[in-house]
Task: structure prediction
Amino acid sequence: MTSSLTPLTQLAAWQALEAHHPKVRNLQLRKLFADDPGRGERMKAEAAGIYLDYSKHLVTDDTLALLLRLAEESGLRARIEAMFQGQRINVTENRAVLHVALRAPRGDVITVDGTDVVPQVHAVLDRMARFALQVRGGTWLGHTGRPVRNIVNIGIGGSDLGPVMAFEALRHYCQRDLTFRFVSNVDGTDFQEATWDLDPEETLFIVSSKTFTTLETMTNAGTAREWALARMKDPAAVARHFVAVSTNAEAVARFGIDTANMFEFWDWVGGRYSMTSAIGLSTMVAIGPEQFRAMLDGFHELDEHFRTAPFERNLPVLMALLAIWYGNFAGARTVAVLPYDQYLKRFPAYLQQLTMESNGKRVTLDGAEVAYQTSAVYWGEPGTNGQHSFYQLLHQGTQLVPCDFIAFGQSLNPLGRHHDVLMANVFAQAEALAFGKTANEVQAEGVPAWLVPHRTFPGNRPSSMLLLERLTPAALGKLVALYEHSVFTQGTILRLDSFDQWGVELGKALAGRILPELESRAPAPAAHDSSTNALVRRYLAGRR
Ligand code: F6P
Result:
């Protein structure tokens, strides 16, 4: 790294960006496009079947050149290599970060501490495939001899969001005579509503937990076991109705699941980067091993692009640099992710963990407090639904919200005119955000003067457009990998450990202290601050 000891804000490129910002603060997209008719054709990048149009961003060629310099000065190239080579770049947990190995083709060599992990990855994938084919073929029989027809994934965070997002995204490819449910919340409602209509004799639980200690998952898994045994009575039924996905064989065995029914992964797979590990077991059962492999190939294609493409044509790098520009120079605090595909309805929720658990940090790798913005808040909803909800703020509110539009050229459900209507809307929204409608234009339509300000659109609101051909398993893999590597690039430039999540610990520990008070119905006098004490007392009074 050129300046590993130089604070980020002292890097020449950062300082040049600070000096550059006043010059471009008042850029107008209308003018940029008018002055440069080729802008929309020029400011695009295409790789692995993803077309990224970044012309509607508040940047000039100079801005981009400086951002690219920032990537170079941040040692991004070396850090990408460090990740791919299995170095322990997750320093606070002293772990390698090798989700890219999960989609490496058979025969590739990726070593962790001298061991090639690719054969292990494929051995687990092969076991998953055998299991998936049994369930899909109706030959995985439950304890009473009936084929399993319902699959319930129990997990939370990365052990839920990836599986549920992928299931929704790839529903089109799912075996429709199987039922899939996902239980994550410790709120009993989640389990109850997911299982109320299922027959335990035909239901299989996949207990997905990297650590196999997570309170929510263990609570739900315990309830699932009671639910299954209430019908089947015999503890031996657990072996046919529960499988585990974990790195913790001991805890799996302690729970009562035969480790022969455990699909393993490794500590070098972060929870939010785990959907291509055995955590994807429910996905593989749903879409079948072949389509799952196609999804892995999509991930791998984007991984290779990220590793090898020059930064100026590197999709994740470009997206990351724009994110850093808006977060640190243009004052944006959030990013809206707007997929124009109903199948991607859980994609924004998935991205929230990926982005914010990775880069929602306030100290650098060496523990120094940052003097800049780290992760934006990511949020979103599929279009066109969002248009009738929060787009009002996007168009006329006071905050700058860069948007990522995601759309597909072909529909998986080509009904009548639906797809053209959908696509007309996504293109129109990006156009409206960028170019708005001036007061003069509104006036010229005969709008009374008093109404003109209300009907004026300031425009100049930036967006990216990601266009793909069709939502296939491979396309989903590319899309997820694109964001994974964008997050990593942002974390690298911002000097963060994007792979730990210490920020979730305090709440867990405090819940562990409060729970005995609630369960014993005995508030510990003055155990907490006066507010928490009062809340505990009030809750317990209500329980009586
Ligand atoms: O919320 C913290 C976290 O550790 C996430 O990073 C992780 O995805 C989730 O909990 C679930 O963890 P596990 O898979 O170990 O149950």
